[in-house]
Specification:
Elements (H helix, E strand, L loop, with lengths): L1 E2 L10 E15 H9 L4 E2 L2 E2 H24 L4 E12 L5 E13 L1
Parallel strand pairs: 1-5
Antiparallel strand pairs: 2-6, 3-4, 5-6
Length: about 110
């Protein structure tokens, strides 16, 4: 499945726009505390364990969006936008969300 941030796909024609689809993943503070407690790979100010959790959350959000596109009969997603948002009174959770337009290609 093609997933792109661009509004179109070079060399392909959109036959039908099926609607907006989304994917969201929320990661709680306990997970972040556990990660920071076990970080031993801080190099150059980067936290590899933390980055891996964010990467996993992003991939899960994209997978959720792709699954919804497939349910609509789509074979591509255009105009995708990925966002990260801190949630909760104390910023104790992080939400990774992505949205895009499901399309059927010609």
């Amino acid at each position: 499945m093609i997933v792109t941030t661009t509004p179109s796909i070079d060399g392909r024609t959109v036959a039908d726009y099926l609607g907006i689809v989304t994917g969201e993943v929320i990661v709680g503070a306990n997970l972040f505390r556990d990660i920071f407690a076990s970080i031993t790979d801080l190099v150059g100010g980067r936290a590899g364990s933390y980055e891996r959790v964010l990467e996993r959350a992003r991939k899960e959000a994209i997978t959720e969006m792709v699954d919804k596109c497939k349910q609509l009969g789509g074979d591509a997603l255009v105009g995708c936008d990925l966002d990260y948002e801190v949630l909760g009174k104390t910023g104790s959770m992080l939400m990774v969300s992505i949205s895009g337009t499901a399309v059927k290609l010609a």
